[in-house]
């Protein structure tokens, strides 16, 4: 089993897919990392040698991933909330940030419907 950045890579997958288990690495970056580390992207994670794992670790260390990236993203969000920009206000209110509609499809951000006291149904 290969561990890179304290993440256990899934052993049955190809290395270019397995690297995407690390936060901040997508398919394109995984292919780039494999090319730079001179590792065949079609090779399974379980078939990697120790030398290949070491070269992959060195290559991944050149990018901002996992904890550092998560921290950076959270700091960016906090900064926006502190200066009260539009996106920061949306983060504070728990609403969608990137211009999505909220009347119909914001259940992921807004959560379950909230009951409003003494609200009568329209129609009578």
Q: What does it look like?
A:
- There is one protein chain.
- The protein is mainly α and 124 residues long.
- It has two domains: 3-60, Orthogonal Bundle (Helicase, Ruva Protein, domain 3), CATH 1.10.8; 66-109, 30s ribosomal protein s13, domain 2, CATH 4.10.910.10.
- 44% of the residues lie in helices and 3% in strands.
- It has helices spanning 15-18, 27-36, 50-60, 66-82, 86-93, 107-110, and strands at residues 3-4, 7-8.
- α4 packs across α5.
Report the order of strands and helices. EEHHHHHH
Q: In percent, how much strand structure appears in the residues?
A: under 5%
- State the strand order across the main sheet: 1-2
The biggest sheet, with number of strands, parallel, antiparallel or mixed sense and barrel status, is: 2 strands, antiparallel
Based on helices, strands and strand pairing, what is the structural class? mainly alpha
CATH fold-level topology of the largest domain: Helicase, Ruva Protein, domain 3
As an assembly, this protein is single chain
In DSSP terms (H or I, runs of 4 or more residues), the helix count works out at 6
CATH architecture of the largest domain: Orthogonal Bundle
The termini sit apart by: 66 Å
Radius of gyration: 22 Å
Q: Ranges with pLDDT <50 over ≥5 residues? A: none
Overall pLDDT, averaged? 90
- Can you give the helix content as a percent range? 40-55%
């Amino acid at each position: 089993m290969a561990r890179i950045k304290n993440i256990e890579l899934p052993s049955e997958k190809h290395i270019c897919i397995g690297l995407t288990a690390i936060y901040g690495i997508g398919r394109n970056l995984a292919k780039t990392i494999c090319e730079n580390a001179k590792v065949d992207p079609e090779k399974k994670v379980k078939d990697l040698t120790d030398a290949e794992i070491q070269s992959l670790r060195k290559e991944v260390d050149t990018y901002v991933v996992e904890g550092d990236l998560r921290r950076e993203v959270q700091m960016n969000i906090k900064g926006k909330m502190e200066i009260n920009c539009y996106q920061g206000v949306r983060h504070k209110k728990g609403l969608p940030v990137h211009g999505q509609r909220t009347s119909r499809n914001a259940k992921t951000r807004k959560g379950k419907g909230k009951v409003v006291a003494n609200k009568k149904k329209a129609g009578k």
